[in-house]
Amino acid sequence: MTKVIIDYNATVVTPIANGVNIPIPTSPAGVSIATTSVYIDPANPASTTNRVELNATFGYRSISGAPEIIVRLWRAGTEIYYALAGDAFDGVDEYSLVSLQMIEHAPLGTQNYQLIVENRNAASTARVIGPITFTAIAIGG
């Protein structure tokens, strides 16, 4: 069966390292570093079998300790994905680049997504420094 692109959206907060300087708060607090959205048209027959593919990339810098960065994706205020991005800082791996992908069947209508990060190790600090990109593509059919 032929696949149809229903909608696509991309957010580029910064395309470079050191383009931002966002402190990553300690869990359970988190900070939204990017948003994106797609419109899944109820009038489009391909929308009933939609899949939304989310792709995100962000860079962070470990400042002290061994940060354990949790990445969360939210849709309409509800968490739909989370993963531990890393805890590799040992004095050598100060900079990290994280890429992730998530696929879901989404409800019809406008779907708003947030990319949220937090640090679950209170004895450490880290900052998002960029790049930050966040894309969503809705495919149906």
The average pLDDT score comes to 95
Q: Per DSSP, what share of the residues sits in E-state strands of 2 or more residues?
A: over 45%
Residues in helix, %: under 10%
Q: Count helical runs.
A: 0
Main sheet attributes: strand count, strand direction, barrel closure: 5 strands, antiparallel
Assembly form of the protein: single chain
Number of domains: 1
Rg, rounded, reads 16 Å
- Runs with pLDDT <50, length 5+? none
Distance from first to last alpha carbon: 7 Å
Anisotropy-based shape: elongated
CATH topology: Jelly Rolls
What order do the helices and strands follow?
EEEEEEEEE
CATH class: Mainly Beta
**Would you report the number of β strands?**
9
Could you say what the CATH architecture is? Sandwich
Protein name: Exosporium protein C
Organism: Paenibacillus monticola
Keywords:
141 residues, mainly beta, Jelly Rolls, five-stranded antiparallel β-sheet, four-stranded antiparallel β-sheet, 0% helix, 64% strand, Exosporium protein C
Model description:
It comes from Paenibacillus monticola. This is Exosporium protein C. Strands 1, 2, 4, 7 and 9 form a five-stranded antiparallel sheet that branches. Strands 3-8-5-6 form a four-stranded antiparallel sheet, with no helix packed on it. It has a single domain (4-140), classed as Jelly Rolls (Sandwich). It is built from no helices and nine strands. The termini are close together. With 141 residues, the protein is mainly β. The mean pLDDT is 95.
